[in-house]
């Protein structure tokens, strides 16, 4: 049986960060990735004639962990196109066109009212369960909107904005998800909007994860799906045995799981997982939507558009301007609350969904990855249901014997973002470094 100091399960940002920190500290680390690539729920792939981010996409300098890594690896940023036009649904439920300034004026009151108590609810963004949030954690975002008394047009526009943020029906998402991200930007909703969907990593996230991986001295093994993790022994003999689906077994002094809550049931754990993990896995987190890339004919005006929160695509914007032998075209990125309602092979239904957001475009083709149907994720980006944050976060962060949990799902500051994944990887690596004696390497080895 092969023996290492630490096995890290998963080579997304959380796993790569933990593996780098641990290998740099002198531990023998084996990183096991079930996919045929690194990156986890980030995936840069060449489709529709352009490199596209099928998963996570945007970063910002108010996200401290990701920005430190951006600085470390000299990664630059590119701005997504600034909209010249805005589209939203009027009081009659039909799309209407206006300026960016008109749309921002329409949503300003509602966006502020949704998070108006953020400084009392979460006075310290890095500690999301501190403050009055426990008193509010039974509420959904929809509950909050329904109590604001907004005019129908303003309410619909505000709801669609938040569907874009949380990737799920608002009735299923805890108000805590809205408050924690705004708390992370000092209580300013405008800055939170910018931080979540404005600046891309130059060169793509594939190059970013490759840069982190290049500093890991241990093996990163792809196509290596873990079947079980069993802990045994006590004291100096305490260890875990990681069994792959191939039957191979690896003995380790520590194991770091980076699986998201929804997918962690794909591995058998002995002893069984802590209650918070089992409970949230059974409940599922709220996110259940889709991200879709759509090619439309011609170079269209820079725009963003919001349909109704119940439409298949609730948010749509122009992202790339391209040309090939077929002529000029624009690549749009869209988001919807229900992954099952968007079929990239059904151009007619996609055309209808686009028309609900921004009429007058000709859909040519589309692509996406269904993260909900992917057994290794079973979710997009983490958003909590009511009660889940304050009830479970502390336990989700706790170690269980030799087993550590590092995922954006259990981050403090930017849970659900790349920043949260990096935070969790750093946290668990430090816990291991502080608790596991460093191996004595022979001189010259």
From TrEMBL:
The keyword Aminoacyl-tRNA synthetase does not apply. Substrate binds at residue 335. Residues 13-433 form the Amine oxidase domain. InterPro entries: Amino_oxidase, FAD/NAD-bd_sf, Flavin_amine_oxidase, Flavin_MAO. GO terms for molecular function: oxidoreductase activity. It comes from the Bacteria. Pfam families: Amino_oxidase. Keywords: Oxidoreductase. FAD binds at residues 33-34, 226. Belongs to the flavin monoamine oxidase family. This is FAD-dependent oxidoreductase. It comes from Leucobacter denitrificans.
